[in-house]
Design a protein that fits this description.
Number of strands: 0
Shape: globular
Largest sheet: none
Order of helices and strands: HHHHHHHHHHHHHHHH
Number of helices: 16
Structural class: mainly alpha
Strand content: under 5%
């Protein structure tokens, strides 16, 4: 006897399961759109909160070390934040004047770049035509000299001073509170869990996450600081003015995979063009920096961080696009640390292992079932790639 279709199963009357699935998809879509909209429109609130959380993970090992010396945790947190903030503020004050000067000379550097590499790119004729067009736009002028004036970095900074100071204040205060709280949130989470097995699992995941993320971020920070110091020494050896500025730029932008190295190399090229007059001399400083970044990305970072925290370059670049569009420069700086935190979290939570597999750049393990009685054949281990440990 033919089975009759259940009532309401026609295309006009979908089943309850289909309605539930459609409702779930719509709810998730609305939640994602609402979350992204909140992160974008309330970025002045979420950016300092996120920066404070990331900095707390970086500085947590230093605070623990200070606590072992006998300082109370609150005092140790305040001292560490004060020292780090004072160092950053002193560096910014020291480099503000040369940064403004170099930024103002940016149009001059672009103009001289066309002249310096005229034989390489064949742009001399175009430069002459541009100069004639500019002179033609000024009738009655006695001279063809073009005065190139760059944007005023001081005015740009002053226009956003209030918002910047507010974000810095929020980040600093929240950072002190996070460092002072220690394991308070982990203890509260353990307290509210009903079963003992869940409590043990929460303690294991919480401690592993804190240790691994803090170690990773602190290691990457030290590597970037080391790269900045070496870059400053190399630029000083080449005779580039203000080598400390280029070292700080290299250390800061190296937190941004791919894009950071390109921006630093471009800035060094323009600075070298303003310093030297021949193409070969102008190319040596950026080429030296590229050699340093290659050494750091392929030897130093993999040796200190390890291969387990490798990230898929496609995922990294996608995250850079998303967070850069969402939060600008701040989003670019924290995109990879957030991705690393998420990957470590996925590694420790079994239902999220599939997500962690896609986030990794290492090839998956090829598991083969050994024939009956043959115990010598094991699962083939995954080969390690030659990519950088940070995909950055």
């Amino acid at each position: 006897m033919a089975l009759e279709a259940p009532q309401g199963a026609s295309p006009q009357n979908p089943t309850p399961q289909g309605e539930h699935r459609t409702l779930t998809i719509a709810t998730v879509t609305i939640a994602v759109v609402a979350t992204v909209s909140a992160l974008y429109f309330a970025r002045t609130l979420f950016i300092p909160m996120t920066l404070a959380c990331v900095l707390a993970l970086v500085l947590a090992p230093i605070v623990r070390l200070a606590c072992r010396s006998g300082l109370p945790r609150g005092l140790a947190s305040g001292v560490v934040v004060l020292l780090v903030g004072g160092t950053v503020a002193a560096t910014m004050v020291r480099l503000s004047a040369p940064a403004v000067e170099w930024f103002a000379r940016l149009p001059e550097a672009m103009y001289r770049a066309r002249y310096t590499f005229r034989e390489v790119v064949g742009a001399l004729k175009n430069v002459q035509e541009i100069s004639k067009d500019v002179a033609r736009l000024s009738p009655g002028s006695e001279t063809s000299e073009v005065v190139m004036q760059g944007p005023d970095l001081t005015q740009i900074f002053l226009a956003n001073t209030g918002q910047l100071l507010t974000m810095v204040a929020i980040t600093t205060i929240l950072l002190v509170f996070l460092l002072s709280s220690g394991n308070l949130f982990l203890l509260k989470t353990v307290h509210i869990l009903p079963r003992l097995s869940d409590k043990k699992r929460a303690v294991e995941i919480g401690r592993d996450l804190q240790v691994e993320v803090s170690r990773y971020l602190l290691t990457i920070t030290l590597i970037n600081v080391g790269l900045g110091c070496v870059t400053a020494m190399v630029m000083a050896a080449f005779g580039i003015p203000d080598p400390l500025l280029w070292g700080v730029m290299a250390a800061t932008l190296n937190f941004i995979p791919y894009v950071g190295a390109i921006l630093t190399c471009s800035a060094l090229l323009l600075a070298a063009i303003l310093t030297y007059h021949t193409p070969l001399d102008a190319l040596l400083p950026p080429l030296a920096f590229l050699a340093l970044t290659a050494l750091e990305g392929n030897l130093v970072t993999p040796a200190l961080v390890g291969r387990r925290l490798t990230l898929n370059p496609v995922i990294v670049f996608t995250c850079l696009l998303f967070w850069g569009w969402l939060w600008g420069i701040a989003g670019l700086l924290i995109a990879v640390p957030l991705l690393v935190v998420f990957k470590i979290l996925c590694d420790h939570i079994e239902p999220l292992h599939i997500v962690a597999e896609y986030l990794s750049s290492l090839p998956p393990r090829t598991e083969r079932t050994a024939p009956s009685g043959d115990t010598g054949k094991q699962a083939l281990p995954a080969g390690e790639t030659g990519q950088s440990s940070r995909a950055n």
